[in-house]
Amino acid sequence: MHRVLRRPRPPLLLALLCLGALAATGVLAKLVPVTQQGDARTLNGFLDLNGPQLSPVLNAIAHLADPAPYALVGLVLALVALARGRWRVALLIPVVFVVSGATTEALKLVLASQRADEWLGSHAHIGAASWPSGHSTAAMTMALCAVLAAPPRLRPTVAALGAAFALAIAYAILTLGWHFPSDVFGGYLVAATYVLFGISAVAAADRRWPTRRGAEAVTHPVDVVPAVGVALLAGGAAIGLAIARPHALLGYAATHTTFVAGAVAIALLATALAGVMATGFRASRAPAGQS
Fold first, then answer.
1. Cβ-based burial of 9 (10 A; exposed 0-12, middle 13-18, buried ≥19)
2. How far is the C-alpha of 147 from the C-alpha of 282, rounded, in Å?
3. Phi and psi dihedrals of 33, rounded to 5?
4. Among the residues of 66-154, which ranges form H helices?
5. How confident is the model over 119-171, as pLDDT tens digits?
6. Mean residue pLDDT across the chain
7. What pLDDT score was predicted for residue 165?
8. Where does residue 226 rank: exposed (0-12), middle (13-18), buried (19+ CB within 10 A)?
C-alpha cells in the first residue's frame, strides 16, 4: 500500500529536504552571480511575452492569490476537512496558511537586497524585498492544502488542478515582471515545507491519540483518469499553439533557451510537489483512524 505521508517520518524528511532546497535557492538567488544572470535572462524571456492585450488577463490571474481569496480558500478547505471528519486537518490548514504567509513576508524583509537590475534594462524594476514570492507561496499553499482536504478518490484530480493553478500564478507574475523566477521557487518551497511539517505533526498525533472515525474511501487506478485528462488538455493546448505558429514558437525558444529551461523547471517543481501530495496518501485499503 502507498501510504508514505500517513507516517510521521517520511513527510518530516521531505519537509527538511524542502527546507534545504529553500536555503540553497536563496543562496543562489542572492549571492551567486551566474545564477543571478540566469534568473534575469529567464525573467526577460517571460517579460517579452507580455503585451497590452495579455496584461489584463495576467493581472486577473495573479490577483487570485491575493490575501482576500487566499483567506477565503483557507476557510473553505478547513470546512471541507471538518465536514469529512478530519478535524486535525481542519485545524492544520489555517495554521499553515497563516505561518507560510508570515514566513514569506519575514524572509522578504530580512533578506531584502537589490538584484540584477543591470540585466533587466527598462523592462522591469523588482523591489529589493522580493524573495520569496508571496503570490507563489499562497498559490502553492492553496494547491497542497486542497489535496490534503480532498476526499481520497479526488486527490489526483485536485493535485492536477492545484499544480495548474500554482503554475498559472507563477507564469502570470513573471510575465508581469513582479518577481524573479527564483522568487517563485522560494515561494513554492516555503509552502511545501510547512504543509509537510504539518502532515508529519498530524500523522504523529493520529498515532499517539487515535480518533474514532470511519476509514477513508478505497482508491482505484481509475481515480487518476480525470487528472490525466487535465494534463492532456494542457498538453493539447501547447501542441495547438505549436502547430498554429511553429516557426515563431521554435524561433523564440531557440533565442530564449534559458527562459525555456526556467519555465520547464518551475512546471516540474509545481507538478512534483502536487504529485507527492496525491500519491503519498494513496492506498488500496485505508484503516480507520488515519487522515
1. exposed
2. 12
3. -60, -40
4. 67-83, 87-110, 117-120, 134-149
5. 555 556 788 899 999 999 999 999 999 999 999 889 999 999 999 999 999 99
6. 85
7. 95
8. middle
- Position 289 scores a pLDDT of 44
C-alpha dist (Å) from residue 41 to 35, 119, 243: 10, 8, 26
Q: How far apart are CA 134 and CA 193, in angstroms?
A: 15
- Can you count the helices (H) and strands (E) in the chain? 12, 0
Position 44: which residue type? Answer: N
Sign of the dihedral defined by the CA atoms of residues 192, 178, 98, 36, in that order: positive
Rounded CA-CA distance 254/257 in Å is 6
Specify the range with the lowest mean pLDDT, choosing from 71-75, 102-106, 126-130, 249-253: 249-253
Q: How confident is the model at residue 287 (pLDDT cuts 50, 70, 90)?
A: very low
Grid cell for residue 181: 523566477
65 within 8 A of 139, measured Cβ to Cβ: yes
Burial class (CB in 10 A: 0-12, 13-18, 19+), 109: exposed
Q: Which of 25, 171, 43 is nearest to 118 (CA)?
A: 43
Q: What is the pLDDT of residue 220?
A: 59
Cα separation, 22 vs 188, in Å, equals: 9
> 3-class SS at 224?
helix
Closest by CA to 47, choosing from 189, 265, 237, 258, is 258
| CA–CA separation, 135 and 138 (whole Å) | 5
Segment of 71-85, 215-229, 235-249 carrying the highest mean pLDDT: 71-85
